[in-house]
Amino acid sequence: MTIGRTNASAQPALDATLTIALAVASKAAYDYYQGQPFQSPDGYQQIDAWTGWDAFLISGSEEKYGLVFQSIAAPGTLIFAFRGTDSDMDIYEDVRFLTTDFVPTRGSIAPTPRVASGFYSIYDDKGGQAQSMREQLFALLAKYQPSQLYVTGHSLGAALSQLFSLDLAVSQPMSASNINFASPMVGTIEWQTAYNATIAPADSIRVYNYWDYVPTLPPSDLGFHAVGSAFQTAFYVKGEWFPHELSRHSVVNLTTVLSHALPASPQQWVGQFPDYVQPKWTMQSKLPPAGAVNWADKIGEHMRFERLMDAAA
Questions:
Q1: Beta-strand relationship, 59-71 and 282-285
Q2: Cis peptide preceding 266, ω within 30 of 0
Q3: Residue 250 in 3-state DSSP?
Q4: Which residues does the UniProt record annotate as the domain Fungal lipase-type (predicted)?
Q5: What is d(CA 130, CA 197) in angstroms, rounded to the nearest whole number?
Q6: What is the maximum alpha-carbon separation in the chain?
Q7: DSSP 8-state assignment for residue 278
Q8: In Å, how far are 87, 105, 129 from 83, measured between CA atoms?
Q9: pTM, full prediction
């Protein structure tokens, strides 16, 4: 199934059913880590899982990191869903912005990608585990031998999903596509060059909220660049007097916006809905503003934008 197309003037077109399924799978990975009941995407069943090693100085811990879902109608179709930041150890890894070489499991890639060491550590370190996350993921591929693989994740999970997607494209090419949500930037210009030369824009799509700060981190001032193609939404807490970043970053809020936007043409939605993070708040979904934003200026720009939109309402 084709998950998107790109051109010079438009966002990629997203398959509504697939994209919502991947967003649901990403939320399920969080619930699994927390020991809570989780919802499988419609038409899929959960069949396996994997872990990762979160290191801190000379210690660390093994943590649940992802779920494998199998299509009920087409058993050869799998989803690999990575969870995002949900522990103190994750936060430590998130802010390790010093870069390191990305080395594929097999083969080679040029230029040598440079990626954030915190993200790569979770993906590559073995620590106290029998296998690293990377080794577990390729073992799962050998176990289930999918004919079609969809890779996804939210926030930190989105970053990990892109590390895996490039590794897979170089080490074991197969029919695989990545739609990820609210991803931070993973690596430097070398990472961007290698990734975009290896994976077609239609096969790696970042879906995010324009008003969310996480996709602008680590700062581009430190040399970080995004990869793949981009699909923007735009939502925030209505009437907020300071940025509610958790609400803007929430995968559930993002899923709500997508569930309204993706069936429409164009795939955008203007409307309101209850905030998942704080239900007494109301979220406002608008059309994304044109152009790029410097991450340090986003607060002031958002306040000006909100006042303008509220005055016009």
A1: unpaired
A2: yes
A3: coil
A4: 80-220
A5: 33
A6: 59
A7: S
A8: 11, 22, 18
A9: 0.88
Q: How far is CA 46 from CA 39, 41, 77, 120, in A?
A: 9, 9, 12, 26
Q: What is the DSSP string of 104-132?
A: -SSS--SS--EEEHHHHHHHH--TTSSS-
DSSP state of 48: E
How far apart are alpha carbons 135 and 1 in whole angstroms?
A: 27
Alpha helices in the chain (DSSP H): 16-33, 88-94, 117-124, 133-144, 156-171, 189-198, 245-249, 251-261, 298-312
Query: Residues for the chain: how many in total?
Result: 313
Sign, CA torsion 62/34/25/270: negative
Backbone angles phi, psi at 252, to 5 degrees: -70, -45
State pLDDT tens for residues 81-135: 999 874 333 333 344 568 999 999 999 999 999 999 989 999 999 887 789 999 9
In the three-class reduction of DSSP (H, G, I as helix; E, B as strand; rest coil), residue 82 is classed as strand
Residue with structure tokens 């590390």? 163
What does the block give as tokens for 144? 């289930």
Q: What is the pLDDT of residues 285-309, one digit of tens each?
A: 999 987 665 544 555 555 555 556 5
Alpha-carbon gap, residue 100 to 121, rounded angstroms: 9
DSSP strands (E only) in 172-281: 176-181, 204-209, 229-233, 235-237, 271-274
Peptide bond into 111 cis (omega under 30): yes
Which residues is 281 bridged to in the sheet? none
The architecture of the domain spanning 16-234 is 3-Layer(aba) Sandwich (3.40)
